[in-house]
Amino acid sequence: MGRKVTLATCSLNQWALDFDGNLRRILNSIEIAKANGAKYRLGPELEICGYGCADHFYESDTLLHCFQVLKELLESPLTQDIICDVGMPVMHHNVRYNCRVLFLNKKILLIRPKMLLANHGNNREFRWFSPWSQHVEEYFLPRMIQDVTGQVTVPFGDAVLSTKDTCIGSEICAELWNPRSPHVDMGLDGVEIFTNSSASYHELRKADHRVNLVKSATTKSGGIYLFANQKGCDGDRLYYDGCSMIAINGDIVAQGVQFSLDDVEVVTATLDLEDVRSYRGERCHPHMEYEHKPYHRIKVDFSLSDCKDIFLPTHQPVDWVFHSPEEEISLGPACWLWDYLRRSGQAGFLLPLSGGVDSSSSACIVYSMCVLVCQAVKDGNVQVLEDVRRLVSDSSYRPEDPRELCGRLFTTCYMASENSSEDTRNRAKELAAQIGSNHLNINIDMAVKGILGIFSVVMGKLPNFRVNGGSNRENLALQNVQARVRMILAYLFAQLCLWAQGKPGGLLVLGSANVDESLTGYFTKYDCSSADINPIGGVSKMDLKRFLQYCTDHFQLTALKSILAAPPTAELEPLTEGQVSQTDEVMMGSGTCNQYQHASNFLSLAVQVAAKVKHFFRMYSVNRHKMTTVTPSYHAESYGPDDNRFDLRPFLYNTRWSWQFGCIDQEVGHGSADAFCISII
């Protein structure tokens, strides 16, 4: 009997409830795995229906269609002579479970339900599924599956496969991140190959955690670890960022890419089981006698190795090179935008481009998307070429220049008012020229005056800006009218500008409010922050500035230099001698620790920090209602302000925070350093 095994894992760009497309991509991955000599193929979590089905998991049709797809997979000649490991929801005893279904040659070997569910951040698995306890039962198959397999029941539970040459055990996504991961007991019980099927979404600076967990899993007790992950936008705010990998004894030996436009990516590796056995014999033998859970073994009359494998080369360790946060911002949201665009049925994007950091960041991400599309077509990606031809309504089109493609897919518009400066107008125009977008100049004064005229006729009074003697209420209302008119015009032009040019389709409106503005509410409800989607809504202002500096160098977009140097401003109040009089930092009350470095003593510093803390919570609570209508944004940070999705908090607050602020004031008044630090942490 041989000892070398060839294994395959994959990243699939699945789409929630797209059963036809999901089946096609699963079969494609199996075909590639077999062509590479693999005898075991692992796929992402819930790959048959897509991970993001959310409350569609409640519907019996979702479960039915999953079994219909499973039937197609069992009957396909592509799935013969390879152990296939696919993910789908299964109902057992009227309870839904997130499961892996492992089958070989039209026989289901095991249904393995998830035992440790993900229920933090964006994950709500306890809403739809129940965790399985550590035992094995018999599961009665639906008749349509019985007709194919000839089986009435199959094992359902926490078991492992015992082939002629090795032993294979499964983990599912969050089980790897848990302090009591199943691979620990499985390793102690002699399991040599661990698999993990994930739907792990992108967050800035997260990839290394994932890689380190996989390496750690096999460093402790040896073994081979396969990690599969979903990729792409499957229908909501999340982008699943691939990174499928294979490790042995603490070393990564094969890895997939984190960001790409490929719908199917298969990672294979040939490894020697004797390396696992030698590693354990040398380093882990004294620990194998520890008390551990004995696993139910399912015997499989199949071998992953071959007696003729003596000259088969094995994969060697590789060094994983991680993207910088700036590269992640350039690539992740760009891939997300491409998936959203091609699946939405629209013909491109429209972005109100103000000449500031935020809207310029959204514009640069669209340009990055065009760069990726051109590169994918150059690399022979047939699906991307088909999609882009459909988007531009030209069956012979072949994109080669990102700027030219940007002109076809991307419309930017500068919406000027009497309060706009020439500086911002020129900055927007210059950036649009460098990325190649179809740029429009729109003046909103006529619309603003028309709306104020209606108010004046009805109420008999005309509001004034503060600099012209108006009150704060008048000043804010006049700013909001301008901002909201821009939102209305953005949607009007998105719907009709292609029509005016004699072209089919409409445009998706892009927003450009960053995560800091969302947290503090520094935007007008139903202004240009109200859009179809927002590629930067989960990214901080500080990261966006670093991203624009990266784009300046990487894409040679020199227009960004003046944008980064300019003070950020909404330009909603009258200019002073032609110059901007309103800046975002003053309006937001923001600041950094640099403001405090000259404090003469701790109490002075404490007073200033306390003021900042109270200002933040007041701004958050006063403006929290805005988040109930915020544009769906790309999730990029470990925290997200999305109402009722990530940030499950009220939107009607007692904004005085009398008790809480009183505690802060009391500690500051006492001048106690220790007590004050505790009160604000």
Calculate the mean pLDDT score and round it. 91
Sequence stretches where pLDDT stays below 50 over 5 or more residues: 590-600, 672-681
Number of helices: 21
Number of E-type strands: 20
Structural class based on helices, strands and sheet pairing = alpha/beta
Structural commentary:
The chain contains 21 helices and 20 strands. It is of the alpha/beta class and 681 residues long. The strands form three sheets. Strands 1, 2, 3, 4, 5, 8, 9, 10, 11, 12, 13, 14, 15 and 16 form a 14-stranded mixed β-sheet that branches. A four-stranded parallel β-sheet has the order 19-18-17-20, sandwiched between helices. A hairpin with a 2-residue loop joins strand 13 and strand 14. The radius of gyration is 28 Å and the shape is elongated. Mean pLDDT is 91; it is low at 590-600 and 672-681.
Q: Helix and strand layout, with pairings?
A:
Layout: E1 4-12, H1 19-35, E2 40-42, H2 60-75, E3 83-92, E4 95-104, E5 107-113, H3 125-128, E6 136-140, H4 143-149, E7 153-157, E8 159-162, E9 167-172, H5 182-188, E10 193-198, H6 207-221, E11 224-232, E12 240-241, E13 245-248, E14 251-255, E15 264-272, H7 273-284, E16 296-299, H8 325-344, E17 349-352, H9 357-378, H10 382-392, H11 402-409, E18 410-416, H12 422-435, E19 438-443, H13 445-459, H14 472-500, E20 508-509, H15 515-520, H16 541-554, H17 559-565, H18 584-588, H19 602-623, H20 658-670, H21 673-680
Parallel strand pairs: 1-2, 1-11, 2-3, 8-16, 9-10, 10-11, 17-18, 17-20, 18-19
Antiparallel strand pairs: 1-15, 3-4, 4-5, 6-7, 8-9, 11-12, 11-13, 13-14
Helix pairs in contact: 1-2, 2-4, 8-9, 8-16, 9-11, 9-12, 9-16, 12-17, 16-17, 19-20, 20-21
